[in-house]
Design a protein that fits this description.
Blueprint: H1 13-63, E1 82-86, E2 102-109, E3 118-126, E4 142-150
Antiparallel strand pairs: 1-2, 2-3, 3-4
């Protein structure tokens, strides 16, 4: 009588346990990086919104005729330094209440010569209520800073 050898195919318990351990370790590493990715995404959104607000403020300053001292949209008096409280969509929040997300600090440097350019330093920080006692603010979670020159001659 001949014996027929049977081949068993499959994974042993050790192999399955090792594969599950590697998969669990990999998933833990990926889930550990998830909060970092979410925070980076949130920071990128805030930076993009602040850049858009800065563009709007500079456009408003440049569109103001030399004869006027107040801008049309944001009501910025040139050359007085000012602080603006802005909502997430970039609109003004005159009361600086809970709806304000951004604080824009605008500082003007008037030229010493009659034909020089007026420098505008813009610092946008968030959240708006993070540091109300310091000018410019020192405590905040994020910021966007830009400088521009205005020809007011």
């Amino acid at each position: 009588m001949k014996r027929i050898l049977q081949c068993r195919q499959g994974f042993s318990l050790v192999e399955v346990t090792l594969a599950l351990g590697i998969a669990a370790f990999s998933l833990l590493a990926i889930f550990g990086l998830l909060p970092v990715g979410v925070k980076s995404h949130r920071n990128a959104i805030e930076q993009t919104a602040a850049a858009g607000i800065a563009t709007g403020i500079f456009a408003d300053l440049r569109a103001t005729p030399n004869a006027d001292s107040m801008t049309a949209h944001y009501k910025i008096t040139i050359p007085d330094s000012t602080r603006l409280y802005l909502r997430e969509d970039g609109s003004l929040d005159p009361a600086g209440g809970a709806a304000a997300r951004y604080l824009a600090t605008i500082t003007f440097t008037v030229p010493s010569q009659p034909k020089g350019a007026t420098l505008v330093h813009l610092l946008i920080t968030w959240p708006a209520a993070a540091d109300l006692e310091n000018n410019p603010p020192k405590k905040f979670s994020g910021s966007f800073e830009a400088v521009s020159a205005l020809d007011r001659n």
